[in-house]
Amino acid sequence: MSTLSLQKIDSAKDEDIIWMVFEDISSKFTGHYHNRYEILSEMNLERQMIYAVWVLEMEVRNGGFNQYFYNTEGRLKHTSAAGFRKVGASKLAALVMRANEIYVKQYEAITEKQNGSLEGFSASYENNPLNDLDTEFYRLEEEEQLEKLMVDYIRKNKQKLI
């Protein structure tokens, strides 16, 4: 059961609402983080998409697409692309689709140095074809006003997010 309510969403400030929804979704993984993708798959599509978009944004902002795919093992790639499309960020959705294609086609080369160590992860950035997409993501995120799109999507779909 969600701790969100229509009243909480209606009274939330725009700058707080995305985190509030993300935090509510993430709270369902408490004590079961290793099963988070299975738990997420049991949630409705609106919750899955908000989670996937927010995780991608956080990971790319922190360490680029390489970090996103490393930390999620690519398990959110389809949901995140659909999520960007669903919130109205069509250019970002297209970019994520390109990143997904690169990740799938060049998986061996991208993950070859990723041996579970910090050194291996750091080395995986060398000549990584995903690196060029990071700057484009930042530009498109601003151009398409991703935060505003997500806030609008949450407010319009609040019934499905509680």
Topology:
Elements: H1 6-11, H2 14-27, H3 36-41, H4 45-72, H5 77-87, H6 90-105, H7 107-111, H8 118-123, H9 131-143, H10 146-156, H11 158-161
Which characteristics define this entry?
11 helices, A middle domain of Talin 1, 162 residues, mainly alpha
Structure description:
The protein is mainly α and 162 residues long. The protein has a single domain, classed as A middle domain of Talin 1 (Up-down Bundle), CATH 1.20.1420.60. It contains eleven helices and no strands. It has helices at residues 6-11, 14-27, 36-41, 45-72, 77-87, 90-105, 107-111, 118-123, 131-143, 146-156, 158-161. α4 (45-72) crosses α5 (77-87), α5 packs antiparallel against α6 (90-105) and α6 (90-105) runs antiparallel to α9 (131-143). The longest helix has 28 residues, at 45-72. It is globular, with a radius of gyration of 16 Å. The model has no long low-confidence stretch (mean pLDDT 95).
Low-confidence stretches: none
Give the helices and strands as they follow along the chain: HHHHHHHHHHH
Helix share, percent: over 70%
- What is the top-level CATH class? Mainly Alpha
Radius of gyration: 16 Å
